[in-house]
């Protein structure tokens, strides 16, 4: 059963720095436990937004936050949250997905942020928040958050 969108907010940013700053501001909406889908084309700024989220939770400095494209899962811990930044771009089958052990990451302190999670119906159904990033210019982004 698909969830009805109860609330949607749209933000515009004009630079990577503004996207990072927005990520920091979003932590009030992302208090654990939360499963968050993060989507957008390659280069849209998904990891840039996550830099701000992680820094906002005081889990790591933005310079320490990188894309988990090849490692698949990055973990950041703060006094408030265990943040798991997951990239499913290279995961194509349910079997590959199961080997990641994502179910073991769920807990009362968990903020799970999944890039390319829309590839799997399960995450579309279970998500608490969906963030979609669109490029609207060279450095401009439109960021839509649905709860």
Account of the protein in words:
By secondary structure, this protein is of the alpha/beta class. It has one domain: P-loop containing nucleotide triphosphate hydrolases (Rossmann fold, 3-Layer(aba) Sandwich). About 20% of the residues lie in helices and about 30% in strands. It is built from four helices and seven strands; from the N terminus they run E-H-E-H-E-E-H-E-H-E-E. It has a seven-stranded mixed beta sheet with strand order 1-7-6-2-5-4-3. A hairpin with a 5-residue loop joins strand 6 and strand 7. The longest helix has 11 residues, at about 45-55. It is globular, with a radius of gyration of 14 Å. The two termini are about 15 Å apart. About 35% of the residues are buried. The model has no long low-confidence stretch (mean pLDDT about 95).
Give me the CATH fold name: Rossmann fold
Number of strands: 7
Summarize the main sheet.
Answer: 7 strands, mixed
Q: Strand pairing plus helix content: what structural class?
A: alpha/beta
Helix content: 10-25%
For the largest sheet, list the strands in their spatial order. Answer: 1-7-6-2-5-4-3
Pattern of helices and strands:
EHEHEEHEHEE
Which tags fit this structure?
Rossmann fold, 22% helix, alpha/beta, 7 strands, seven-stranded mixed beta sheet
Break the fold down into its secondary structure elements and pairings:
Elements: E1 8-13, H1 16-25, E2 34-39, H2 46-56, E3 73-77, E4 82-87, H3 94-98, E5 110-115, H4 121-126, E6 129-135, E7 141-146
Question: Quick gist of this model?
Answer:
This protein has 147 residues and is of the alpha/beta class. The protein contains four helices and seven strands, in the order βαβαββαβαββ.
């Amino acid at each position: 059963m698909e969830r009805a969108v109860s609330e949607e907010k749209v933000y515009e940013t004009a630079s990577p720095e503004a996207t990072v700053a927005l990520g920091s501001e979003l932590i009030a909406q992302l208090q654990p436990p939360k499963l968050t889908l993060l989507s957008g084309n390659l280069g849209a700024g998904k990891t840039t937004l996550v830099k701000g989220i992680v820094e906002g939770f005081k889990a790591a400095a933005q310079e320490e936050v990188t894309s988990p494209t090849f490692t698949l899962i990055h973990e950041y811990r703060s006094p408030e949250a265990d943040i798991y930044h997951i990239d499913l771009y290279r995961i194509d089958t349910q079997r590959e997905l199961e080997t990641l052990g994502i179910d073991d990451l769920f807990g009362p302190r968990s903020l799970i942020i999944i890039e390319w999670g829309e590839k799997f119906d399960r995450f579309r159904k279970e998500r608490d928040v969906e963030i979609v990033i669109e490029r609207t210019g060279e450095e401009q982004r439109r960021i839509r958050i649905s709860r």
